[in-house]
Amino acid sequence: MWRNVLALRQISQRTISTASRRQIENRVPEHQKLFQEDNGLPVHLKGGAKDALLYRTTMVLTMFGTVYCMYQLVVSSMPKKQK
């Protein structure tokens, strides 16, 4: 039991101490230039193809959900036929 706790403690100390030594490149100015340039695109599409794919997928799912909801409302509003 104690051996597992000590091993976990040692692993956690090792990962925390090595993480602070790595330098992470600051890319905020690059992203600011990208999102502030005036190219006629809305801000939610300026990220490139991945953003466009995510936007279109969201719109398709939203439209499908809306149509399905309307269909279910129509079906539930109709009285069931008695046999």
Automatic annotation (TrEMBL):
The membrane topology term of the UniProt record is: Single-pass membrane protein
Under CDD domains, the record lists: Cyt_c_Oxidase_VIIa
* Pathway involvement of the protein, from the record: Energy metabolism; oxidative phosphorylation
Pfam families to which the protein is assigned, alphabetical: COX7a
**What is one GO biological process annotated to this record?**
mitochondrial respirasome assembly
User: Which residues does UniProt assign to the signal peptide?
Assistant: none
Looking up SUPFAM superfamilies in the UniProt record yields: Mitochondrial cytochrome c oxidase subunit VIIa
Q: Which InterPro entries does the entry link to?
A: COX7a (IPR039297), Cyt_c_oxidase_su7a_sf (IPR036539), Cytc_oxidase_su7a_met (IPR003177)
What molecular function does GO assign, one term?
oxidoreductase activity
Localization annotation? Mitochondrion inner membrane
- Where do the TM regions start and end? 53-74
Keyword Methyltransferase in record: no
Q: Does the keyword Cytoplasm apply?
A: no
List the record's Gene Ontology CC terms alphabetically.
Answer: mitochondrial inner membrane; respiratory chain complex IV
Q: Which UniProt keywords apply?
A: Acetylation, Membrane, Mitochondrion, Mitochondrion inner membrane, Oxidoreductase, Transit peptide, Transmembrane, Transmembrane helix
Q: Which family does it belong to?
A: Belongs to the cytochrome c oxidase VIIa family.
| The protein's name | Cytochrome c oxidase subunit 7A2, mitochondrial
Q: Which organism is it from?
A: Pipra filicauda (Wire-tailed manakin)
Write the lineage as a comma-separated list.
Eukaryota, Metazoa, Chordata, Craniata, Vertebrata
